[in-house]
Write a structure and sequence with these properties.
alpha/beta, 6-stranded parallel β-sheet, 8 strands, AB_hydrolase_fold
Length: 190
């Protein structure tokens, strides 16, 4: 059985547009795929534990990952741990540097959860960094006008993967729905 774990980004949720579009595409195309998209825990350790428990719950399944932003960082970790394929959308490459600006109280705009981003979370994120990756297992999609992340970090890290660089766009990845057939083909789900 094919399982797809979609991992949303920082301060996001399963109700994000890309998550909803992915779920709808699988249903509309009648793909034989179990779609998972949990509300990811707000601390890195809890998030990875939660995501690993989902994958470990069906060890015989073929797991694929789609991750957006911070979810892309988590997807990269999981793809290496479980030797799965992953599609990363405007992925965070070094979130342990980026998220230092967010230390303190945060409110998730989707869920209204109020939580703390702690300095220790930066160490937890750094512990998940994957220096060496199985480049054939990745498709990485970035847009050059991403206002949140420097797309060049992803281009540098994932230059030997199936890399798609689109001019313009933004952090949400404009026209993501048009990429879904390519995403599903790369993951061998369509």
């Amino acid at each position: 059985m094919n399982n797809l774990l979609y991992i949303h980004g920082f301060n996001s949720s399963p109700k994000s547009l890309k998550a909803e579009l992915t779920k709808s595409y699988i249903k509309e195309q009648q793909l034989s795929v179990n779609f998972y998209c949990p509300q990811v825990a707000s601390s890195p350790k809890a998030a990875i534990q939660q995501l690993e428990e989902i994958v470990d719950s069906e060890p015989s399944a073929n797991w694929c990952f789609v991750g957006s932003s911070l979810g892309g960082y988590f997807a990269s970790y999981l793809a290496e741990k479980y030797s799965g394929k992953a599609v990363l959308v405007n992925p965070a490459v070094r979130p342990f540097e980026l998220l230092t600006d967010y230390i303190g109280e945060q409110t998730n705009p989707y869920t209204d959860e109020v939580y703390q981003v702690k300095p220790s979370h930066m160490d937890d994120l750094a512990d998940l960094y994957q220096q060496n990756i199985a480049t054939q297992n990745y498709m990485v999609m970035v847009q050059t006008a991403d206002e949140v992340l420097d797309y060049r970090q992803a281009v540098d890290k994932y230059h030997n993967t199936q890399l798609i660089v689109q001019e313009g766009g933004d952090h949400s990845f404009i026209n993501y729905s048009a990429m879904l057939p390519s995403v599903m083909r790369f993951l061998a789900l369509q």
